[in-house]
Amino acid sequence: MAPNILITGAAGYIGGSVLADLLSSSSNAIREANLIAVVRTKEQSQSVSELGVNVIQLDLSDDPGVREAVLEHKIDIIIHTASSMVPQLASSLIQALGERRRVSGTDAYFIHTSVTSLFSKEAGWPYGEIRDNDPILGKQKAIEQPSPVTLTDIIVAEEAKKQDVKSVNVVVPYVYGRGTGQWRKLSVNIPGFVRTSITHKTVYKFDVEGKPPAAHISDLVALYNLLLEKCLLKEPIPTGEHGYYFAMAHRAPWWEVMNRLAKALYARGLVSGPEVYTWPSDAMAAEYLQLPELYIRAMGTSTGDLVPVNAYKLGWKPKWTLEMFLDSMDDEIQAVLDLDKG
């Protein structure tokens, strides 16, 4: 019987792009599987249904509804992209998947989505350099005041072990590029800077240059594709407390990114000049970018000393380089102009 794969956040930037990539996959294992998409609204459901996949409109905070959906559709694998910072959602999905595994008697997999900014000192990471094949879970559990995302990472690994579900944690960096999903096609970070710069006719940067991990959306979804194929083929891969995968293709030097954006925006007549100014305050940056002030420092200035190992060992080969990224700023601007719905 063909396996059934549930994708949460299928109307989102990452989830929608993952779904689109899987639908066009050349892998026989993926092509033979049944894809089921979870979305939040009726409008999203109608849009994603146009792809020819089964769509479930579901509030993931509805535990009985989640259980019913997983058992009714006989889900074997969940790709969870809807949230990285709500432990309850991940826990509910894994518990339902565990119940399904006990009924089916076959392996079940939970592919979670986390974020690399967790592992920076600005976000409270106290351990310095970290490789994704290091004992990350133990270090996360030792943090005195863990963030909601860290708590979710811990819950994923521990609940999956309790339910005898194999968990995989894709740790997502700053992602750029035009998405390929049916609904949302823009990421958060660069489009946020683009629209803020256009609105205020000025490009701003933070007083400290962050150089966080980054990856193009096509490279990121290729990693999800690769991991899913390995799961479907029952190939042995690191899972559980060993199953962290830093999806880092290169770093993003933000001051240079802002310089490139400023020049490209000015060439289009969208800002007053090609110069880049420093944010007068974090509060102003949070207000203009419409991001939480509590996290704006970590989001805007973090670097993190991450070393990706596991994904590359599996054969992940990102195609986008730093040079390609820096040269794509005008494409990022065009994507916002084409797709921004406000």
From TrEMBL:
Q: Which GO terms describe its molecular function?
A: aldehyde dehydrogenase (NAD+) activity
Give a GO cellular-component term.
cytoplasm
- InterPro entries tied to this protein: Epimerase_deHydtase, NAD(P)-bd_dom_sf, NAD(P)-dependent_oxidoreduct
Q: Which Gene3D superfamilies match?
A: NAD(P)-binding Rossmann-like Domain
Pfam family example for this protein?
Answer: Epimerase
Residue stretches making up the NAD-dependent epimerase/dehydratase domain:
5-84
Q: Which SUPFAM superfamilies match?
A: NAD(P)-binding Rossmann-fold domains (SSF51735)
Which PANTHER family would you find in this protein's record?
NAD(P)-BINDING DOMAIN-CONTAINING PROTEIN-RELATED, PROTEIN YEEZ
The protein's name in its UniProt record: NAD-dependent epimerase/dehydratase domain-containing protein
